[in-house]
Every structure is written in structure tokens, then in C-alpha cells.
Design goal:
The protein is an alpha/beta fold and 284 residues long. It folds into two domains: 124 residues, Oxidized Rhodanese, domain 1 (3-Layer(aba) Sandwich), CATH 3.40.250.10; 113 residues, Oxidized Rhodanese, domain 1, CATH 3.40.250.10. The N and C termini lie far apart (41 Å).
Length: 284
């Protein structure tokens, strides 16, 4: 069973395995239609497509962030349509080395499905290794999935507003440093970060060539970030609760389990103008 990352070579030997399902989650926040269009142009044979906005998120509300979690019945229906059952090994792929695929990895684990891994290096690494591609759209026989959300895996805005004052917790902002500092905000209406949060951009999980850093390197870096705080007291956020899942995946891969996700993230935090906002570099 693969539970964090899988290499192209390992995946290639299971392309015809009926107990395996490849789900393509490529996406572009600036051009939401691009993902499915590009998937149809070229994808891993047998891969089905899941759209971040349409499939992996609920509609935005006046108080939510940009990518709220879908209702349980909607997500379970999606997994059945994508051919996922309790005994399915799922492999999730994107075009950015896992930053978007990690959202579905986290969601599946949130619903109790551990047999899910992200393709290391994404589609580009698959292509560099010379493995085959297909075009068009694909479908598969429906699955039978009956998972339930795991309690205490997420943090609400109200909870975070309390925990950010608690020195026993570490809040990690996974956005680019200039967004954290409030110098640039290309997506959301207000720049800055949640007071008390530290910054570790999600791209820091990758080495040159967009391949994952060694697990021991990741472990050392996250332990340094956490200090004396246990990983289960880490709370991760980003702009809308998507790329922050890449930190949870990297930590899990490094043996640091239990970090929680602030699903609403920055885009939900700034919905209320009364909530405090910080700018500038992180302390220390």
C-alpha cells in the first residue's frame, strides 16, 4: 500500500491493475477551465479527472474561503463516480509536483482512506521518464465508498482565533513569502497573514527539478520550524486550504503525523474585517 508518494516507475507497473485508480487534479487558479482542457490533451493512461472548483470544493458562501470542503454526500458520490472503493489504491497526479494533488490526498485520508499516494514530480516527471500518455476523457466503473470524515482533523476560524494565542501551537502559513509579508496578493482582496503564524512556502518541500526533498531533510526542516511543539499541534493554512495540504503530506511522509488543516485559510480569515491582520517578516 502506498500512503504518501509513489514514483513513476512504481505507478507504471500498475496501469492495468483494476484495484488501482489514477485521479488527475491539475488546476490553474488564474484559469479554472485550463485543468480539464489540458488533461484531455495529455494524461497518464487510465487517469480520470477531478476539478478543484467543481468536484473537490463546495460553492463559496459569504463567510467561507475560496475552496470550502464539499458536503460528505457529495464527496462520497464523487469518489464512487471516480471508481474509488475501500480496497482501491488511489494515485493522485497534477502538473505542479503535488501541490494541488495533495488536496485530494488529504481529503481521502480525512474520510478514512489510507491507500492514497501522490505521484512524485507530477506529470512532468512521468513524461521525463518516458512513460506513455493518452488523450481525451476517460471514465471507469463506479466504486463503492462509505467513508466518514475524521473528527479533529480540521480547525475552524473561531478555533484558530483562540489557538493563535496559545504557545503550545504552531500556525504555519504555506503561501509564498511575499504574500505572507503582505507585499503582494495576486488572488485575495487583502494582503498579510494571520498574527502569530510562521511562514514556510509549500514549494520549500521540493528540490531542484520539482522533486521531493528526502524524507529526513523534510523531517529536520519541519522539526526546526516546530521547535518544542509536537506535530499534532501544528495548524497549516494557505490561501484557500489547498496547497497547505502539501505541507501535511510532506510532514506525514517525514514521520511527523497529526498536523491539522485550517480549511478556510486566508481567504476565509479576511471575510470579517474585524479579524486582525499582520504584515512584515516573521518574528525571529
Amino acid at each position: 500500500m502506498y500512503t504518501t508518494f509513489i514514483s513513476p516507475a512504481e505507478l507504471s507497473s500498475h496501469l492495468d491493475d483494476p484495484l488501482w485508480r489514477i485521479i488527475d487534479c491539475r488546476f490553474d487558479l488564474a484559469n479554472p477551465a485550463w485543468g480539464e482542457q489540458d488533461y484531455q490533451r495529455a494524461h497518464i493512461p487510465g487517469a480520470v479527472f477531478a476539478d478543484l472548483n467543481r468536484d473537490l470544493s463546495a460553492p463559496i458562501t459569504p463567510t467561507s474561503g475560496r475552496h470550502p470542503l464539499p458536503a460528505p454526500q457529495d464527496f462520497i458520490a464523487l469518489l464512487k463516480r471516480l471508481g474509488v472503493s475501500e480496497n482501491t489504491q488511489v494515485v493522485v497526479v497534477d502538473t505542479v509536483a503535488g501541490a494541488f494533488a495533495a488536496r485530494l490526498w488529504w481529503m481521502l485520508r480525512y474520510y478514512g482512506h489510507s491507500a492514497v499516494a501522490v505521484l512524485e514530480g507530477g506529470l512532468a516527471h512521468w513524461q521525463r521518464q518516458g512513460y506513455p500518455l493518452s488523450s481525451g476523457s476517460e471514465s471507469c466503473p463506479p466504486g463503492q465508498f462509505h467513508g466518514e470524515p475524521q473528527p479533529n482533523w480540521t480547525v475552524t476560524t473561531a478555533e484558530l482565533d483562540v489557538l493563535r494565542h496559545d504557545p503550545r501551537y504552531r500556525i504555519i502559513d504555506a503561501r509564498a513569502a511575499e504574500r505572507y509579508r503582505g507585499e503582494s496578493e495576486p488572488i485575495d482582496a487583502i494582503a498579510g497573514h494571520i498574527p502569530g503564524a510562521v511562514n514556510r512556502p509549500h514549494l520549500q518541500n521540493l528540490a531542484r527539478g520539482s522533486l521531493l526533498l528526502p524524507a529526513e531533510t523534510l523531517r529536520q526542516q519541519f522539526l526546526e520550524l516546530l521547535g518544542d511543539i509536537p506535530p499534532q499541534n501544528a495548524i497549516v493554512y494557505c490561501g484557500s486550504g489547498v496547497t497547505s495540504c502539501f505541507h501535511i503530506l510532506a510532514m506525514h511522509h517525514a514521520g511527523l503525523h497529526g498536523a491539522r488543516l485550517y480549511v478556510g485559510s486566508w481567504s476565509e480569515w479576511i471575510r470579517d474585517p474585524q479579524r486582525p491582520i499582520a504584515t512584515g517578516p516573521q518574528p525571529g
